[in-house]
Design brief:
With 104 residues, this protein is mainly alpha-helical. The chain is built from 5 helices and no strands. α1 packs across α5.
Length: 104
């Protein structure tokens, strides 16, 4: 159950950072939408905050740290694999949600 809640939290936090108007100030601070002469994003923050897939990895890593602190008994292998699995699940959830939103 805790992993389902973690996936939902990661999806919502990542969607908020990448898409929502509430986080526009954060995206502006990191230069999301601004480009160099060769049309690449300015800085690593802009690259991460402009892409759901990219942004979900650090959000998942932070969530894994929280899970490891508050749910003792996680093995080292679980701590290593958990960010990637949670990120992948959030990406699948986002893909499914975006398909349904565009169909309506």
């Amino acid at each position: 159950m805790i992993y389902i809640l973690a996936v939902l939290a990661i999806w919502r936090l990542t969607a908020m950072l990448v898409y929502d108007d509430a986080a526009q100030g954060i995206r502006d601070h990191f230069g999301v939408g601004m480009e160099n002469d060769d049309e690449r994003p300015i800085g690593l923050g802009a690259a991460f905050l402009g892409c759901f897939w990219c942004c979900s990895i650090p959000v998942s890593a932070i969530m894994t740290i929280v899970l490891a602190i508050f749910s003792p008994g996680m093995t080292v292998m679980e701590v290593v694999l958990c960010p990637w699995a949670l990120s992948g699940a959030a990406i699948l959830l986002n893909h499914n949600a975006r398909i349904h939103l565009t169909m309506e």
